[in-house]
Structure formats: C-alpha cells, structure tokens
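Input/output pair, single chain:
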Amino acid sequence: MMTESTEEKTVVADYAFRFDALPERVIFTGQIKITGWLLHRKGLPIHGIRGIVRGILRRRWIFGARRKRSRPLIAAAYPDLPEAGQSGFLLLLELPVGRSEITIQVQDHRKIWRTIFVTDVWAFPLTFLGRIRLPRVERFLSTYLAKLIVGNRQNRASSVKPDPFSQIEGSLPRERLQSFRGQPGSTQSDIRAVDLFVTSKSNLFIREIADLLCAGFRAAGCRAQLLIDQIPAEKTEEGKIQIVVTPHEFFNLFLRDKLAWEKMQRLTNHLFLLGTEQPESEWFDSNLVVAPHARAMLDIHLSGVAAYRAHGLPCFHLPLGYHPLLEQSIVP
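Output:
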C-alpha cells in the first residue's frame, strides 16, 4: 500500500521510479528481493536507497540497496538525466516469521531519508526443511503454496470482476472532465473546441494519430486544430480542451527545452495527456513523470486506461475509429 501523507506524496512527485515486481503479500521464505530503478526528476543526486523491516514486536532491521545497476532503456527514456543509465537497484530483505511492515526510503540530495513505499508482507519460512535435508520438499511446498494463494486470489477477483468496459467507464471521476449532456449516441457536449499538440520530432505514426483525432472531433461538431511544436496555453478558454498526443515525446523532445520544470508542471495542470504506449514499456513509465500534474490521462486502449488507474491516476478511454482520412495516401 502506498502511504497517503502530504509529505510522502511530495516525495513520489520528486522521483521517477518503478519496481520490476511488487513483493508478494505472503511468502514462504525468509527473504525477498526487490529490484527496480529510481531517479530524481530534476537530476539531483541520490545518496542511498534502503529497506526497513519492522516485525510484530516493532523491532527494526535496516538493509541497504545495491545501486548503480545498468538500465539502458531508462537512459533512453530520460536522455537529459545522466544518472538514468545507472538508476537500477537491488534490495535484499530478511524477514522474521509473521507480519512485517516494509518501508523503502531514498536518501535525497540533502542526505535526508524520505519514504517512497510502504507495504505489509506475511512470511512463513519453510527453510527448516532444508536444514533437515529436505530441500526438494522445501522448494515444492514453497512453489505449490505460492501458486495456491495466487490462484485463490485470481478466482476471487474473477468471480466479482465486472465487464472491463463498464468497470473503467463506470468509475471515472466525472468532475475532472466536461460532462456530455446529450442522449446516448449524441455528440452534444460542453466541449466546443479542441487543440491537439505534437512535436515534429515524433514519428509519422504519432502525427497520423493526431490527424485522425482532429478529424474525429470535427465530425463530432467541435472546432479542432493540430498544433506542431507549439506551447499550450496556460489558461484554457471556456468550452475548449487541450490534448498532448504522446506526452513522453512532446515533453522530452520539445517542451523540456522551452520551459523550466516548475513552469511545465503548472502548464500541465491545464492539459489532457493522450498515451499510446504499452503499460509494460519504458515509454509508459516516462509518461508517469508528468501524468500526476495533468487534468487527466487519456489512452487509446483499455489496457493503458487500467494501468494508469492502477497508479492512482484519472484516465479516460479515447478509442480511435474509422474516418475517410485513413484511405488517403501520400504519393512521394
């Protein structure tokens, strides 16, 4: 579980990070391994990463992470941050029997420890089987029990899981988006104009997506224009929305060279950001740097919507459709 204090939310906003896999809530060994990457969004130095384990009796154990591990894809995602290429870390934690609270902290540029993640893990080590020379039984039981718990969890989830479309659309925070007041199937809405933003440094595919969206908004009765290498307005006119198509490219390849980070944050408060990346990709992670500051995320695929929402971010489905524009060909 992520902590909810104002201070810790600020810490998360200061750092870009991701765990390769979240720790299981129940384990049958006495040790867990946590790997991932972490860097400061402004490139400020990081002096350490550590994990703190607190057992039932509140006794505390501290474990330092091994840092400076190669992450070439993160270097590509954050070309302006020199530390990105060596932002990987490995954290090995020894757990006592029973419930333990695990806290992961980063030591910032002022050498102050700041919390970025907190969770509970129940440990029931079967290592005694290895000590009595039954290592195969230990491995079998550890694997079998772990799969059994995961299987039961998935069964419980699937038994109450609603249709994915209604699940995502039905729980959206409506106050964050202009409401549509027409009957089902109607195009009537409070949105009368849409500005879409791309950078000329994006590939042709991204430009084509933006062109298709422009055509779709026009067909729905909105004034829509595609703006290339232009800075969005800091104040949005009534009845207008601004959408950045593929934010990790627009921000990293264009806007970052034009504005300071603080001003980009303020500007992003007025923007919707349209993602087109697969949730497991480094480009998706790059979008998470600016996503917390946006009015909301948009995504062309429901898997992206679900992934942003899993990070606690408001996200809306904006599927692509057919338009005669798709039949046009460009003759070189």
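Residues 173-327 form a domain with the Rossmann fold fold (CATH 3.40.50). Residues 90 and 173 are 37 Å apart (CA to CA).
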